[in-house]
Amino acid sequence: ASCVQHRLVVRDASSLQILQLYTCVDQIQYIEWSSDSLFILCAMYKRGVVQVWSLEQPEWHCKIDEGSAGLVASCWSPDGRHILNTTEFHLRITVWSLCTKSVSYIKYPKACQQGVAFTKDGRYMAVAERRDCKDFISIFVCRNWQLLRHFDTETQDLFGIEWAPNGCVLAAWDTCLEYKVLLYSLDGRLLSSYRAYEWPLGIKSIAWSPSSQFLAIGSFDEKVRILNHVTWKKITELEHPATITNKKTIVYKEVEKSPTVDTERLSFPPTRALASSLFSTQSKYDISQVPVSLQYIKPVADRANPKVGVGMLAFSADNCFLATKNDNIPNTVWIWDIRKLKLAVVLEQLCTIQCFQWDPCQPRLAVCTGSSRVYLWSPAGCVVVQVPGEGEKQL
Hints:
The chain is 2% helix and 48% strand. It is mostly beta strands.
């Protein structure tokens, strides 16, 4: 699905043929599929309206208007039959049911990085709340949206919450000014708390392993600390130095190369495909000899949100690898072997890493830098995939 102004276009994934074309009441700012791909919501935050469309019954439609309360966020519940709307100033979260047309309200949601978290099986929802200048967490049963537990947290300024994949432990972490991770059970008991240091900037990112055995914590001190699920103690620290010296680490470096064009095919004026190939550059990976110095950017200390520390973390689906990005080495992806707790591979790109994502079925990492290329890594090696733009032809 894609949106152009106020139109929603749904295409077939294999043929890219248009299946449905919907028209909304205003410019679309956010779209999201339901978990079963039968519905799609379109949020228009400026107007405070959400429209829902059915793929099975194109003539069916639903419109949710939050009115004067406004709208700043909208998402599906895991069952794909309820919509959660967050009103302006985070006054409340409104839960709309598409089946019974009932409405439920959750008061005092906190405006933070990740204030709502669902368990992987979709049974429970945790909401971060702020009441009387103190942080709380409420746990709801998604079946009927009844409150299961409500408890306060030992945080100065709760920044985010995240369920373990098994749904048994909830991680909550404090603002970057206070290094603190709290681990709660489903009934609200505090299982453990972890603090690596006190005064410098603290936690920047958090990721659970798919098996729920490890919790990786990325910090502003350019390190990743991994906690185990038995004692909730640190088992290792992963550092991100600007120079790779270990000869067992494979360093892939992206390099650009000039395109090769057969002179017999040259013509004037050149065809569109030929002109595109003449003036476009291609890239590939070379294996660098260790030691390797990576591009390091010194952070500006007197500005807010400094570009320093581990800001991106992701475990592979088989729990064998962890991918990280250190924000002051912005062109590099670090891939760690979790079985050995050692650095296995470093990918050095020409441009800044925008995002990366693991394949849900196998240990394969996709990396994007904002260019027209997608970079894929697997234990077998690296490859650069050129993504053609609209109207381009491949030679």
